[in-house]
Amino acid sequence: MLENRSRLKWLEAAARSEENRMKCVICKTGGTQAGDVTVTIQRGESTVIIKNVPAQVCENCGEYYLSDDISERVLAQSENAVNANTEIEILCFAA
Fold first, then answer.
1. Which of 33, 66, 89, 92 is 20 to 30 Å from the Cα of 3, by its Cα?
2. pTM flag (> 0.70)
3. Residue 57 in 3-state DSSP?
4. In total, how many domains does the chain have?
5. For residue 31, what are the domain limits?
């Protein structure tokens, strides 16, 4: 009985993990997994580099996908740097 419960919990966890994965739209073969990436944004004369951004990363080609919430926060951080007229800014993602 205990073995069946343990197996059921493992199957449920695997199903949840698979639900969170998506197929990469670039290479069309890789699945994604949670990771951290470096995002570079260029606007006009400004370049903003933001490190340690949480993303879903393709295990095949390395393409990354940001959630809506993370995208908004990355854009807000980069907008602040651009508004300060910086030529190049290197930031860590603000959690």
1. 33
2. yes
3. strand
4. 1
5. 2-92
